[in-house]
Amino acid sequence: MASVVTATPRWLLGPGPANVDPRVLQALATPVQGHLDPEFVATLDRIRDGLKRLFRTSSDATLAISGTGSAGMETCLVNVIEPGDKVIVGVGGYFGRRICQVAERLGAEVIQVPYEPGTALEPQRFIDEVKRHPEAKVAAIVHAETSTGVLQPLEEIGRALADTETLFMVDCVTSLGGAPVEVEKWHVDLTYSCSQKCIGMVSGLSPVTFSAKAMEVVRRRRRPPASFYLGIDVLLDYWGEGRVYHHTACSTLYYGLKAALDLIFAEGLEARWKRHAEVGQMMQRRVQELGCTLFAREGQRLPMLTAIVAPESVDGAAVRRALLEQYSIEVGAGLGEWKDKLWRVGLMGYNARPVLVDLVCGALGELLRSR
Q1: Domain range 11-15+268-369, CATH class
Q2: Domain extent listing, the chain
Q3: Which of 46, 85, 172, 249 would staple 137 via disulfide (CB 3.0–4.6 Å)?
Q4: Residues of 18-29 as b/e, b for ≥16 C-beta within 10 angstroms?
Q5: Measuring CA to CA, how many Å separate 104 from each of 62, 107, 142?
Q6: How many CB atoms lie within 10 A of CB 298?
Q7: 151-161 residue pLDDT tens
Q8: 22-265 in CATH: which number?
Q9: pTM (2 d.p.)
């Protein structure tokens, strides 16, 4: 007799993954199709159209990588970086450092622009560093720094880099689908995200988009990208009209992504941004009413991810464990040096609802009063 796999239901209110709409779960039960089935490849075309609308771009070099957000990061870097290239990276949290690590593995010379965790990088500082290194191949920054709860302004940077040779790369893993991301308006050349946060799907896919400027850099490479699996040249052969075999794409995940995109546009993208903003403000207000401090500076906070400083009077790890064991609520710990000092509460996609603000703040309040 076949074994039955079970899992305890959780409210996934951390930095991701998040709970998904039942209609997306239903789409994930679509019968499995081959990666070259005509119905499936037609669905890929619709997904590409949806991602272009979501990124606010007209670039056909837009697709969903088979992999998580980290695969999207590597896709953007491995396709344009060659050994010895300079890469400028704004670093004010864990994921800025991750960009540095990937670039270094590709043989790049990394120039860090450090800024205080919990704050946004002042755009002119970043622009000035790019001006000091006009030969830099890429200038990269995190739009939504998930480790600290900070939202980074991008428009001024993109405008300043638009007429340079340097490619502007942005990590919008946490922001896409929950806050404005304007790829063409902000002159962003390389962008990546993930499926399991504000887009409202399970993990396993990473939307990316390359500008015409970025694709010209790809075409001028001395050698092909070091990764075949993440090579944008061969990936576009599969996503394009030729449908050249590249890898065995998981139809299940892509049908889930198609359903999630349909729900986003049925709601309206601007309405979705507004919902995340309102729920995020509610969450941040309620947390402060409990006597807690927010890590990110006021006016620079992410709407969909709130980083809370655990009071010194409590064991931060014990509170998170109690939330999971007693209330079946998962929230995130801090990363790196903030491991037991922060609670990271995410209200993303399907979970960006006032009722879940009540749920997590009610549970957190009970635990803080009992300690």
Answers
A1: alpha beta
A2: 11-15+268-369, 22-265
A3: 85
A4: bbbbebbeebbe
A5: 25, 5, 17
A6: 7
A7: 999 999 999 99
A8: 3.40.640.10
A9: 0.96
